[in-house]
Amino acid sequence: MAVFSFYLFDRTGTCLCYHEWQRTRQPQDMSDDHKNMFGMLFALRNFSIKLSPDAERGIPSFFVTDVYALHYFETATGLRFVLNTSNDFKGVDVTHALSEIYNSVFVEYVVKNPLYTRGNVIKSDLFITKLDDYIRALPCF
Amino acid sequence: MSRPSLQALGDASFARSEHVSAELLALTYGSFVRQLVQDYESPSDVNAQLESIGYNMGVRLVDDFLAKSNISHCSSLAKTAEVIAKVAFKMFLGVSATVGVWSQDKKTFGIVFDDNPLAEFAELPEECAGLWYSNVLCGVIRGALEMVNMKVECRFERCRLRGDECNEIRVSLHEILVEQPPKGED
Amino acid sequence: MQSRSRKSLMHDSVPGSSSPHGITKNILEMSLNQARGEVNMDAYLVLFSELVSYCRDRVESVMALQEKLAQLGYRIGRRALELILAREKVSRRETRLLNMLNFIASTLWNFLYGKQADCLKKVRDSELEYYIEEAEPLVNKYISVPADYGHFNCASFSAGIINGVLDSAGFPAEVTAKVLARNGDEDLSQQQGQPLTIYYIKFEPEVLEREKRLNG
């Protein structure tokens, strides 16, 4: 499995963090790319819940195409973690990995940093380093 | 495998976290409140400051709480109340709280607790009669719930420092915020 | 004892009340071996960071911010000493300098942070200057100081606590928190490894005079 890119959005759509490991097709404009990604996730999520037999649940974990997969994890506080990988991720619970990134990287290095204000783009190098370390340590990287 | 009770979840989350002396917390908080009383004229201004400080704390603590307690979402206000009392109070303050009386319209509930680590060494002098010493807790609850799309108002109803038999915070739900679609969405 | 009357003042104002948990707490009756009440460290640190923000919004300079934190710590120091003495049922005050310093590095540190200070040292060639080393001050755990804050250190708060204790105990001193690189340099730009925080204590000359008198 190859890991392509990572996005972290807050509930207003601000992209708090974007990081890439491999991206063959670069978009023209990154901020457009972020807006499109968030818009798509918002629509996908709401549509997915509408289809669900349980009105409270039905949040998608991932979707797969013939070349890539998009993995999704959201928190009750509206944070949305996205990881794009190649589509041969069988047996790896990437959504769980994203929840671990929330628990042990985001909360530790962003939330607990008193100098970070919610809603701002994450500028902490430490966070990026820890995120990178975590992803690279995944057995399937 | 049965889901652990909220009580057990609270105990486990507290046990798993790193701790500091409750006395250090009480002394630090006391010093902070003293400073506020010095800086602001009236007890009601101090109450407002404490609430707003609490709000900032709640906004920060909520992600830590959700991550550590593994609670993904609460399906009802009643569940939310139980989680605050049994899990959050235990996890952060190490004390047990219970959900108190509900209002007629089921939109307001109480959080009742006896021990309050913040007020461990405190006493209220006469000139601070209107002060809700631990008002920071009201702000924490408000800030945390706002981050999960619930707009609430919290206020102290009873406080042991004021001579009441226990501490109680009343939490009232004003509205559930619905996420707006992003601007410029086609 | 002052702290005892303060405690009962709070409960006297509640006639006929009884906590479901029973007995009115009395510090003097608390067992020395009783497990300390504890709270979540993150809750404490989030409160502390609000305290720092509050002070930061009301001062003009980094120096003033450090002083403000030290003042808040000072208040804690004065009360901490009373509490510790009440709990340990100590009737005699420490009057000797080294005993006082040991009290700070062990008993006080244990009361506040649950452990002893890393190290207590004396400045060479001076009877009045000492310092306590701390590798990882609690208050600095999640704080990263921006470059424009210079030598700012939240541990000024802890320095204030030490100052409050020393003043209350009759050992007036100047206490400041400094951050040093491992090799003892104040210049952190060349640092290797984690910097060290030290609490530098400089006693007033009267303390030395008293010490000499006590030595006979």
Automatic annotation (TrEMBL), chain A:
Keywords attached to this entry: Endoplasmic reticulum, ER-Golgi transport, Golgi apparatus, Transport
Keyword Transport assigned: yes
Biological process terms in GO annotation: endoplasmic reticulum to Golgi vesicle-mediated transport
Pfam families associated with the record: Sybindin
Entry GO CC: endoplasmic reticulum; Golgi apparatus; TRAPP complex
Subcellular location: Endoplasmic reticulum; Golgi apparatus, cis-Golgi network
Transmembrane intervals: none
CDD domains named in the record: TRAPPC1_MUM2
Gene3D superfamilies, alphabetized: 3.30.450.70
Binding partners and assembly: Part of the multisubunit transport protein particle (TRAPP) complex.
Assigned protein family: Belongs to the TRAPP small subunits family. BET5 subfamily.
Name the record gives this protein: Trafficking protein particle complex subunit
TrEMBL record, chain B:
Keywords in alphabetical order: Endoplasmic reticulum, ER-Golgi transport, Golgi apparatus, Transport
Record's subunit section: Homodimer.
Domain of life: Eukaryota
Protein name (database record): Trafficking protein particle complex subunit
Subcellular location: Endoplasmic reticulum; Golgi apparatus, cis-Golgi network
One biological process term in Gene Ontology: Golgi vesicle transport
InterPro entries in UniProt: Bet3, NO_sig/Golgi_transp_ligand-bd, TRAPP_component
Keyword Transport: yes
Regions annotated as coiled coil: none
Family membership noted in the UniProt record: Belongs to the TRAPP small subunits family. BET3 subfamily.
Protein function: May play a role in vesicular transport from endoplasmic reticulum to Golgi.
Principal location class: endoplasmic reticulum
Span of the signal peptide: none
Entry GO CC: endoplasmic reticulum; Golgi apparatus; TRAPP complex
Keyword ATP-binding: no
UniProtKB/TrEMBL annotation, chain C:
A GO term from the CC aspect: TRAPPII protein complex
SUPFAM superfamilies membership: Ligand-binding domain in the NO signalling and Golgi transport (SSF111126)
Lineage: superkingdom: Eukaryota
Record InterPro entries: NO_sig/Golgi_transp_ligand-bd, TRAPP-I_su5, TRAPP_component
Pfam families: TRAPP
Example GO biological process: endoplasmic reticulum to Golgi vesicle-mediated transport
Keywords of this entry: Endoplasmic reticulum, ER-Golgi transport, Golgi apparatus, Transport
Oligomeric form and interacting partners: Part of the multisubunit TRAPP (transport protein particle) complex.
PANTHER family xref list: 41-2 PROTEIN ANTIGEN-RELATED, TRAFFICKING PROTEIN PARTICLE COMPLEX SUBUNIT 5
Protein name according to UniProt: Trafficking protein particle complex subunit
Species assigned in the record: Chondrus crispus (Carrageen Irish moss)
Lineage: Eukaryota, Rhodophyta, Florideophyceae, Rhodymeniophycidae, Gigartinales
